[in-house]
Structure formats: C-alpha cells, structure tokens
Amino acid sequence: MSTTGIAWTRRRRALARFWRGYRRQRAGLYGAAILVAAVVLALLTPLVTDPLGLDVTKATGAKMGAPNLDFPLGTDESGRSVLLMVLWGSRVSLLIGFMAALLSMTIGTVVGIAAGHFRGWMSAVLMRITDWFLVLPSLVLALVLAAILGGGTTTIIVAIGVTSWASTARMIRSQTLSVEARPYIERSRALGAGHWHVMTRHVLPNVAPLVLANTTLQVAHAIVAESTLAFLGADSGQVSWGGLLRGSYDWGAATSGAWWYILAPGLCIVVVVMAFTLCGRALEAVLNPRLRGVPR
Amino acid sequence: MTAPLDTEPAAAPAAGPGDERSAYRGVLRYALAKAGGAVLSIGMVIVATFFVFRLIPGDPAIAYTRDVPLSPEQLDLLRHRMGLDKPLMQQFLDFVLRTIRLDFGTSYEYKRPVIDLIGERVGPTMVLVGTGLVISVSLGLWQGTRAAWKHGSRFDRVSTGISLVLWSVPTFWLGLLLLMVFAAGVGPIPGIFPTRGMEDIDAPDGPLYLLHVAHHLVLPCLTLVAVVYAQYLLVMRSSLLDEIGQDYVTTARAKGLRDDEVRRRHAVPNALLPTVTLVFINIGFVVGGAVSVETVYSWPGLGLLFYEAIKGPDFAVMQGTFIVVCTAVIIMNTLADVVYRVLDPRVRSA
C-alpha cells in the first residue's frame, strides 16, 4: 500500500472512531439535527418563497396583524409576513455567523500557533495583543468598528471576527506549547524541519480538533453578536433576525402586544445558537481527552 | 517595571518570620508589573482609538455641523480650530495630551463637553451593573456549588440546562420579552413595572426616591442577571467538580467530617479561586450587556449614551465613551490579577 493509501485509511478510521464517540452525545445529535434543518431551510428559501414579499410597497397583509392562516407568524408594521422575513433573515444570520466565526478562528489559530511556536519578543508581542483583545469589551469594540466602517455584510463580519479571536488564540497557544514539547518535534527539527514545516505539518493537525470544536461555539457567539449589533443599529442593510427585532422595537411591538413579531425571530436565534452550542460541547467532549469521563 | 534593586531569589516556600516580608515584596513586584501592563494596554486603547476614528469616511468638520450650511471659508476656520489642518503626528500628540487630561472634545449632538455627558451617566450604569453583578455572582456561585456537589442529580441537570439556554439568549431579546410581559402587559397580565428610564418626572423625594428607582431597576437588572449568572454557575460547577476529585477532599471525608463541612471548609474555598478572575473579566462582558439592556429600557447610563452616539453618529461621544469604558475594564482586570495572586500564592508572575 502506498503512503497516501495508508494515510487515507488512517483518516477514515479516525473519522469512524470520531463518529462512534459523537453518536454517544445525545444533546450533540439533537444540535446537529437542528443545524442541518436550519441550513437546509435557509438554502431552500429562495426556491420556495418570493423575495418580492420583503418589499414594503408590495406588502399585502394588515399592519401588525396577529397570526392567521395567510400569515402563520403575523405581519410587521408595513404588512409583510413575519414568517417570510424570518426565513430570509436566516440566510443573513447564518452567513454572517459562519463567515465571522471562520475569520475569527483563522486569526485565532494563526496568532495562537505563532505565539506558541516562536519564542522571545514575537511571542511576547502577540500575547500582549491577544490579552488586550481578550480584556476589551468585544461588543463595544465591534460596535465602534461597524459604525466607523459603515454598514454592509462584510463590515459586520469583519467587526465580529476581529473582536472575537482572542480566546481562541490563547487556547491554541497553550495547545501548541504542549504539542511542541513532545519528542517527535525535536526529532523532526533535528532532521532539518523548518518553522513552517513544524507549524503546518505537526502543530496544526494536532490542534485542528480543538479548532473545530471551538469554531462551532464561535458561530453561536457570532450569531448572537450579529443580532445584537443589528439591534443596536449597526446592521448589514439586509433582513436578519437581529434586524427584525430592531424593527419590532422601533415600531413598539413590545408595548402594543405584537408578541409574534418579537417571539419569532428571537426564538430562531435561541434555537440555532443552542444547537451550535450543543454541537460544540459534544465535539469538545469527544475530541478533548481531558474532558473524557467528566460529567458535564 | 520591576524593582531592579531586589536581587534576592524568589521566596522559598519555607516558613519563617523573614519570609513574610519577601512574599509581600513579591506581591508588590507582581502588582507593579501588572500595573505597568495595564498602563501599556490603556496606551494601546488611546492609540487605536485615534487611528480607528481617523478611518471615518467624510469630514469631521462637516459631521460636526451637519445641519448648518457653512461657506468654505467657515469650514476651513472650523477645521483649523479642530486642529484638522495640522500634520498627523501633531494631531496625534494633541489627541494623547487631551485624552490624558480627560478632554474628549465636544459632542456633535449636545454641543457640550463629552466628559460632562459621561460624568452624568456613570452613576446610573454603576447602579445597574453593580446590583446585577452582586445578584448574579451570589446566585451563580450558590447554584453552581449545589449543582456540582450533587452532580448528576435533577437539580444539576435542570440548572445546567437553564444556564445553557440563557447562554444562548441575546440579552436585548430577553429584555424585550420581559418588557412586553411585565412592563407593557400581555393579555390579562397587567404591566407592573415601568417601561423606561430610571425615574419618572413626578419622582418622590427622600427615602421614597430609592424605592422609586428600585422599581425602575427591577426589569433591567433581572435581564442582566439572567444572562450573566449562567456563566458563574457553569464555571463554579466545573471548578468544584475538579476539586471534588482531589485527594484532600477524600482525606477530609475519610477523617469523618460531615458532608457539608467538607464542602464549606475544604472544597468550596479552593473552587472559588477561578471564579474570582471570572467576576472581574466579566465586567467587560457586563458592560457590553449593559449597552443592550440600557437601550431596551432607556436606562440613562453610559450604554445608552454610547448607543445614542452610534445612532447620531456622534463620533466625539463614541470616542470618549469607548476610551472610558475600556480603561475601566482594563483597570478591573488588573485588580483581578493582583487579588488572585494574593489569594492564591501558587500563582507565580507569568
């Protein structure tokens, strides 16, 4: 068997082992099921619904109408269907959640590995910056960034990603330190491996499981952050769950008893975020050997 | 940053009268190093603020006079007075010097010094965040202790479940729900709490005023506590679970101590240590949460000021609140590190 063949067999076995472990995490399975459903719904939305219904001038329902057969989740202040907006909002909320988490994990992993691998001033400077980002109130920082860079989906992704990578970097750094203390790294160095080789071929594969588990938690965090930013006025200019709640607040849904307008987008956020959290915790329990056997 | 005169080796863990002094000196040195780090962090905040706020598209002079049409000469004069025609380095130095003197410029919106606006809003935020912290810390630690001590029990599963749900709830949404149910009233439920603000125009004087404010405080505070306390619960639970597995707890049990005595005298004091840091670290988080809560309930604190500044946009106020909030958070975290070091001598300066 060729070396790549061996590697692939090993990977397949590792995956099967991972799945056996994950299957035992009941909450994690529920979370994964909810996530798959949410993503499928978000992807199907353009195929089964008409975005024209989002246009204020084309709205057909009553203003702030309670749920009925035509509008299962009621209508908003200009007569648009809340159900339709929640469906379209899921696309923006999930997209921003995934992209922001990806950005934050990339920064966190790069900084974490670099800070753990290089010693001396470089590590010190990186950790100083990490600590700084860790301490600063990230929501406030994200709001400032979003307000200054102006609206737009990219801005929101950058604002959330840039403010939320610090805890990842810390975790990845400590993991890198423990990986680099292993003898085979020394052997690899003695054989002439450079920084790049050690970092990408030995450290990265070893920290990857933790990165994966943490990404899931980061998506949850990013979705909450997006909704909060949108609620506080730094939105992407598109319909999102947070933007809907902003609308409900602006039009006094809370004081006029339009509960459907507040309940529907909020429950979507909570359910999806919880699903991500459950998956993240399940992944952590499976992948992090230190947590094995600990009641959580 | 550290005292160079002190060439003694680090205090050995042996007991002795002279040892106390060198341990004390170690803490002092540690505190000085941390304080130096904090000053550096605050400096980084000021530098970052200057450059981030230079990224604003458009002309600050026009932003300042949004509603008033001005001739080009008048604009030039204004730019000159705002110091915008100076070289960047000079502007930066001016900015740093003014910031150190707590001069954050003039609000575009209110045409008043930003520091005065901030000064007016600090009190209400401290009332809200302070009350919220005290309640959430005590509730979270108590519930976390009980959950860990009886781990696997129904109480444990229920409280872990609740905290996971609360962790997923956006602060502002919970605020909206409570506002809808308990302030506006839904269906047959009458609203029993005020919907907005810290006080009404007809607020009573004297001791009744406190009750009046407390009445307004209930919902905002409840929102903040609900979202924050879950974290304390989870951290206390997992750190106590760690302690339960330690030998000294088994030893204490083996000596025949009663169960709650083992818990109160042995396990809990040690498990409390990680939560000390969390309390301080969370202050940053709470400040962020306070922005949402203050917005939902129009609580007249720093968070609402910041929110209004974003809506403006009133860049001078944004800049000022940002620096003040970040500085406060950094100072709190530094205190956390020092307190932790005093409480847990095992921590050597890192």
TrEMBL record, chain A:
The keyword Cell membrane applies. It is a multi-pass membrane protein. Keywords: Cell membrane, Membrane, Transmembrane, Transmembrane helix, Transport. Pfam families: BPD_transp_1. It is found in: Cell membrane. It comes from the Bacteria. The chain crosses the membrane at residues 27-48, 94-118, 139-166, 258-283. InterPro entries: BP-dependent_transpt_permease, MetI-like, MetI-like_sf. Belongs to the binding-protein-dependent transport system permease family. This is Peptide/nickel transport system permease protein. It comes from Streptosporangium album.
From TrEMBL, chain B:
It is a multi-pass membrane protein. This is Peptide/nickel transport system permease protein. Keywords: Cell membrane, Membrane, Transmembrane, Transmembrane helix, Transport. GO terms for biological process: transmembrane transport. One of its GO terms (cellular component) is plasma membrane. The keyword Cell membrane applies. Its main location: membrane. Belongs to the binding-protein-dependent transport system permease family. It comes from the Bacteria. It holds the Pfam family BPD_transp_1_N. It is found in: Cell membrane. It comes from Streptosporangium album. The chain crosses the membrane at residues 31-56, 122-143, 164-189, 209-230, 271-297, 317-340. InterPro entries: BPD_transp_1_N, MetI-like, MetI-like_sf. Residues 122-336 form the ABC transmembrane type-1 domain.
